[in-house]
Amino acid sequence: MALTIALVQFEPTAGNIELNLEKHLNAIQLAAEQGCDMVVFPELSLTGYEPEMADKLSHTDIEPIKRQLGNAASESGLLVISGMPLVNKTDKPFIGALIAKPSGEVTTYKKQYLHPGEERHFSVGKEGLVLDCGDNKIGLAVCADFCHAEHQQQAVALGAEFYVMSALISHQGYGQMQRSLQHSKHL
User: Fold this and answer.
1) Number of Cβ atoms within 10 Å of the Cβ of 131
2) Average pLDDT, the chain
3) Helices marked H in 59-120
4) Cβ distance 162 to 140 under 8 Å?
5) pLDDT per residue over 34-67, tens digit each?
6) Which phi and psi angles does 65 have, rounded to 5°?
């Protein structure tokens, strides 16, 4: 059950997917060189956390991005979690995660719980997700998801053994998130 996870922290350039993707590809290569199994980037890492730009950014053609991340995951053998707004055909975009698997396949996850104020720019996702990483089952959360016991319980019900969160945490929010993690009893 050994699992080595690279957690990448960097400051994305607002709205510059091409530059941010290049930073992702470099970090994936570095994580592979360090013998990691998985690399996790912050929430909305490919675009920066730019709620006002979310609708426009969600309409970016993501196929080339998925292809590059899928190739990097395949070449490195890593499970890669990155983030960007995802188009919603009926409403505001989702805060999304792109999950590039070692097979090269890229799937998505949509954040299920929003922080206060995010509902002005984003829609809520509906489905939980558990990923395979080697012999490990990993429940995926994006930021505020993990603050809700229901999300953690859903991950356990789906078979998660580990719980990984892609988050953007401000200085003001760090203490609250730390307390939430300390009191979590589900995983």
Assistant:
1) 20
2) 90
3) 63-76
4) no
5) 999 999 999 999 999 999 999 999 999 999 999 9
6) -65, -45
pLDDT confidence band for 166 (50 / 70 / 90)? confident
Contacts of 78 (CB under 8 A, 6+ apart): 28, 31, 32, 36, 37, 38, 39, 72, 102
DSSP designation for 123: B
CA separation for the pair 79, 20 (Å, rounded): 18
Task: Find tokens 């016991």 and name the residue.
Answer: 149
- Which structure tokens are listed for 91? 């409403």
Task: Indicate the burial class of 61 (C-beta count within 10 angstroms; 0-12, 13-18, 19 or more).
Answer: exposed
Instruction: Tell me if the pTM is above 0.85.
Output: yes
Amino acid at 107: T
Helix (H) or strand (E) holding 85: strand 79-86
Residue 55 is classified by DSSP as H
Nearest to 9 by CA among 168, 142, 177: 168
Q: CA of 38: how far to CAs of 113, 118, 136, 154, 166, in Å?
A: 24, 28, 11, 22, 12
Which two tokens mark 157? Answer: 């019900």
